[in-house]
Amino acid sequence: MITGKITLHMVCFSLGFSAATAMADETTPPPSVTLGIAGINAPRYSGADKQHWQLMPVIQARDGAFFLDSQKGIGYDLQADNGLYLEHTLGYGLGRSDQNSSWRDGDDRLRGMGNIDATMNTALALGWSVTPWLVLEGKATLPLSDSQGVQYRTSVTLIPWQTSDDTVALQVAGLFGDGRYMNTWYGVNSKQSARSGFERYDAAGGFYGTDTSLTWSHQFTPAWAASVIGDYSWLDKHASDSPIVARHNGASATLALSYTF
């Protein structure tokens, strides 16, 4: 997701991706726990012209259909023999600060805009593993503890290369938001304009950008694995016309190391 928070949605050992590849291989993974750390260099917020580094823990556990994930939250997935799957999660969004932050999105450039509160959210994803190398998915994320609007994401994941030790995956996603969501992250109301100096801006709902990720995951041993992720985001005019957006595109890089037992 371009907005708001650091995510590891394309880490190949993440639970969502593991579920998709497991369906492609028609196997059910045994109960497992994964611990790790990820270093991320990314824009300070969606539309920022400055980068920052963050260290994020990777904590994942799965037992059958149920899982816990430090990025997604807690949830379950249901999988059909024909490759269709449904995933439901209960998670937590970190919001955004109007000053530089070392643990969530934020930039001094946004002073006067106020903070976007952290919120509980629920996400529902419906996907189809068409072949072992092609996965289609649609996902909606809805806030529960604050009225921040709904974000929608449609994605296509290609897995052109997969061996016992290495996996390469390319994901292209289209991003959409309702009016409340767009104005939470990209809008500038009258009070924010007076405090920050940004011109007032009402963001329209609908399509607002794309996110493209390329991931290489390597299995050193049955327990140790690493992933390298390059990500490119692009904002459409509904977001990029906002005065808080200094750049309509951005890139990030992630290096993650994990141990599974």
UniProtKB/TrEMBL annotation:
<keyword id="KW-0732">Signal</keyword>
<dbReference type="GO" id="GO:0009279">
    <property type="term" value="C:cell outer membrane"/>
</dbReference>
<keyword id="KW-0472">Membrane</keyword>
<dbReference type="Pfam" id="PF06629">
    <property type="entry name" value="MipA"/>
</dbReference>
<comment type="similarity">
    <text>Belongs to the MipA/OmpV family.</text>
</comment>
<protein>
    <submittedName>
        <fullName>MltA-interacting protein MipA</fullName>
    </submittedName>
</protein>
<dbReference type="InterPro" id="IPR010583">
    <property type="entry name" value="MipA"/>
</dbReference>
<keyword id="KW-0998">Cell outer membrane</keyword>
